[in-house]
Amino acid sequence: MKTAIVTDSTAYIPKQLREELNIHMIPLNVIFGTEVYQEEVDLTANAFYEEIKTKDLPTTSQPPIGKFVELFEELAADYDAVISIHLSSGISGTYQGAVTAGTMVEGIKVYPFDSEISCMVQGFYALEAAEIAGRGESAEVIMNRLEELKENADAYFMVDDLSNLQRGGRLSSAQAFIGSLLQVKPLLRFEDKVIVPFEKIRTRKKAMKRIVDLLGEVVSGGGEYRAVIIHANREAEAEEWRKELGALYPNVEFMIGYFGAVIGTHLGEGAMGLGWMKK
Prior knowledge:
Elements: E1 3-8, H1 15-21, E2 23-26, E3 29-32, E4 35-38, H2 45-51, E5 59-61, H3 65-75, E6 81-86, H4 94-102, E7 109-114, H5 119-134, H6 139-149, E8 153-158, H7 163-168, E9 185-191, E10 194-201, H8 204-219, E11 225-231, H9 235-248, E12 252-258, H10 261-267, E13 272-278
Parallel strand pairs: 1-2, 1-6, 6-7, 11-12
Antiparallel strand pairs: 3-4, 3-5, 8-9, 8-13, 9-10, 11-13
Helix pairs in contact: 3-4, 5-6
InterPro entries: DegV, DegV_C, DegV_domain_contain
Protein name: DegV family protein with EDD domain
Keywords: Lipid-binding
């Protein structure tokens, strides 16, 4: 059985790595006024952060179902099945789009997978799936492995304030922080597929230290982990953090990722996060 791996642009897997592992990507859209850009195709993360210096924040939208159908039909020429891995269904309709498109194509079986998270932790699922697919394993074997990985995957992130998330309707339990947006650095996480407040912390430095401690609690239980430092236009800060974390946790493989245009629209520039998954 030959299985294709698809993910969406919010996994933020570098293009070179996608090409090496034969991971297909479907982009979400970023809309500045009347101009529509396909994330990671027409609009890079760097270009996005330059744009928002002089323009109002854009809106975002999921890929049209027709884009999924088109991609799945193309893959049907060479593959028996496709595993389509997407950002959490609690914050986007992208996963449901893959589900619907899967019922509309013939000649290929579509297995949609809700990562229940986003960014490079979502990407970790795609990387693992591509590796297993490369060994010729069945789609069912790959899906079972992805479900196993959910048991030991998590991410925490810090934003400068919650205004973008509130405006975009991407934050649950926002009332817990209303009235104190300027006084705290909110620490957030995914829970039951949606973004929820985790803790209120007074300073950026303390918020990042808290995330480090949360990782420490997890990896102290043993095993090998991969982790990603995720930044919204704060590359130098991310590099410094990686040095610090690498010294603290030598059993963790760290990489640097980023909040691209779609997720950056909702988190705002300056956001930092740390996500991980047990190998």
